[in-house]
Amino acid sequence: MSGSTITSSSTSGGVPVVVENIPGSQSAAFMIGVATGSRDEHPEIFGLSHLLEHTVFRETETRDSYQMAKEMEGAGGELNAFTGREMTAFYGITIKETAPTAMDMVGDIVAHPKINEEDTELEKKIVLQELSMIRNEPDSYIHDLFESTLWRGHPLCQDEGGDEKIVAGLTSADLRAYYDEKYRIPNLAVYAAGSIDVDETVRWAEETLDGMSGGARNQRSAPSAPKSEYRFVKGDAEHCHVAMGFPSYGASHPDRMAASMVSAVLGSGTSSRLFQAVREKKALVYSIYTTVSQNSDASSLTSYMSCTDKNVVEAMETVATVISGFLREGLEKGELERAKRLVKGANVRNMESTEHRLYRLGVNHMLNGSTETLEERLSRIDAVTEDDVMRVADDLLRADRLNTVVLGKGNREIRKYDASALTL
Closest by alpha carbon to 261, among 179, 194, 143, 344? Predict the structure, then answer.
């Protein structure tokens, strides 16, 4: 699925339309992105973006949820959505011959939702169950806990799901007011990937969204670099889940790809430094990996692991030792090239999915205006040098910015741990 082309245009009303045509694709995927998310919520409505994303699927002016399901599945497709910290998105994917159904369905739920009290109350029950489920899945919950710790005091600390007590008190009037304020141009954008007719997509976007004018972009400010913090959170799981990470660069930063290479060298794959040192050589953890969580003006570079109580302290200190050794000794011969191929391989495999291409297209454009093809991304990976990696590592992997969160039952040693022992 190489050789795709990306076309950027806009409707007469100013809605961006970004299309990635994929040669030979048998599917068509369409997304409407809205430039608002959990970081844009004030405390009294924390969780509203997510609840609204759910509720619009309940009923539109022409369909109820069952009719939507029948039409979309009858077209061989799927209708879905997601809420992030900086965007909410609604998308539909079908086989290419039923592409008009995907466009129609996505447009209907964004432009014509009913958002009545009955639907809101029903969907609240589902969302509250989802929030409870997340808190009972420690391997997922640790990510939210880490981000809320790292960005404490800044809106980026607000996870996508929201607060259960606040969500329980939200009304359809709250959702409608938020919708009327945020779901407006210039916050709207259209993305499409697969076998796509560009002109038809632009016409659909104009007919569907050009009447939704009168909005304003959310005013956001970048977080300051947080200081080091250690946090223990009581949990019921037998295993402890641990996150150790640092603040990193925003989506437009020129060193963002080098930061991704730092992450890959440390903890991507079973040949990575952390996997070998912490799991293979010492058997301290069941799983360990490093990832970058990206926002428009900041990101986090974080290692996650799960282990029993008795191994937590040694595992954390081993991670710190590995990072310290990397900073002191630099890259091994061939290490960066192996990391590059690993990251490139993951990108190539992911790009074989139309859904993943649509997601990447929408998120990248919404965060930094990027319309990068796969080939361009692979070239950026190749351009990273060893000097780039070590310069960025020295900039990011700093003891005074290391944040650590432990979720689990925790013995006294873990609860009272002195994180100053995690020297880099």
Answer: 344
